[in-house]
Amino acid sequence: MWTGRLEKSSKRSTIGGASTSVEKNWEPPLVTASRTPPPRRAMYERIADDLRDAIRNNTLRDDQNNPTDQLPGEIALAEQYGVSLGTAQRALNQLRDEGLIDRTPKRGSRVRQARRKFLRDGIRRLEGDSEHRFMLADIDTRQLQVRHFESGSRTAEAHEEEMVRCFGSHMRLLYRHRVYEVDDSPASLATSYLPLYLFPDGGEALLRPDSGSGGIWARLAEAGHEVVDADEYLDCRMPTAEEAQELRIPPRTPVFVLYRVAENSRGQVVDLAVIVLPGDRWRLRYKVLQQVPARNAGARG
Fold first, then answer.
1. Which residues span the domain enclosing 85?
2. 74 with 89: CB under 8 angstroms?
């Protein structure tokens, strides 16, 4: 619970020791006719601005004037700014939706701690670097572990557009679903889908947590369907309830959803990987190569 000092006046407030002018009947400054007047900002937005500045400038202070990551509560903000509890709540919710703070019942609002991000190196992955065969190029001392694994067979459902696009709605598919974690914290979800008919033995190796040396693509090659090409498509959206639960992230934390579509030499899709990465924990790297055109023989210089 935040117990920082608050000034009683509704026209002056202190956030982390910084004095901020606040007037309930605030009006935008006069401007010349050649300029467009700035839009009127709601009171909750101006409160959120003050709190955001305090977070970014590390000027939040407790009642002992010590640095803190605890934000004022709704009641304290309402008293400090002379606004309703609803307005104070909207200000805090705004910062929560921006990913700056976490709000927990009975514990208040705290600054969300920045995490050291993982780097997914798509270049090394698609070049087949054996040391980064899954998706990480920046593990350093952190060890990637499979926390949960499940497998089986199924068909695509109508709402699963990418699966339907790759395989149709009636093809029987093998699936492998993994939850990866680092230091006991979920880092990503990965689900692979492969046509069942490709494997005369029913894909027995793919139903096990360890699919064997070389992974899924090696098993495809053994079945006569070597991967010769792969494309990746990247979406960004809010997580489903199930994804948020598996990744242990707040429901409003955006996720990257990466679709990797692998084909054999006949242009058949033989593997669709759907990888879900929390947006606040990952950075993706791709290299764009500039092709230098050949110089014309007759060109001068």
1. 12-111
2. yes
In CATH, what number is assigned to the domain containing residue 26? 1.10.10.10
**Do both 126 and 193 map to the same domain?**
yes
Nearest-angstrom CA–CA distance, 52 and 95: 7
Could you tell me which of 61, 55, 58 has the C-alpha nearest to residue 14? 61
- The whole-number pLDDT of residue 291 equals 63
Place of tokens 């608050």: 6
Q: Where are the alpha helices (DSSP H) in the chain?
A: 43-56, 74-81, 85-97, 122-126, 161-167, 215-222, 241-247
Same domain, 166 and 250: yes
Residue with tokens 């924990």: 281
CA distances to 39, 78, 166, 183, 217 from 87, in Å:
19, 8, 48, 39, 55
Please tell me the pTM assigned to this model.
0.66
Minimum mean pLDDT among 141-155, 219-233, 282-296: which range? 282-296
Rg from Cα positions in the chain:
27
Tokens for 112?
Answer: 């969300």
What single-letter amino acid sits at 6? L
**Residue 6 is assigned to a structural domain of this protein:** no
Residues 182 and 237 in one domain: yes
Domain boundary among 77, 111, 145: 111
Q: What is the DSSP letter of 122?
A: H
**Are 74 and 207 in the same domain?**
no
CA–CA separation, 161 and 168 (whole Å)? 9
User: What Cα–Cα distance (Å) separates residue 260 from each residue in 193, 219, 282?
Assistant: 10, 17, 17
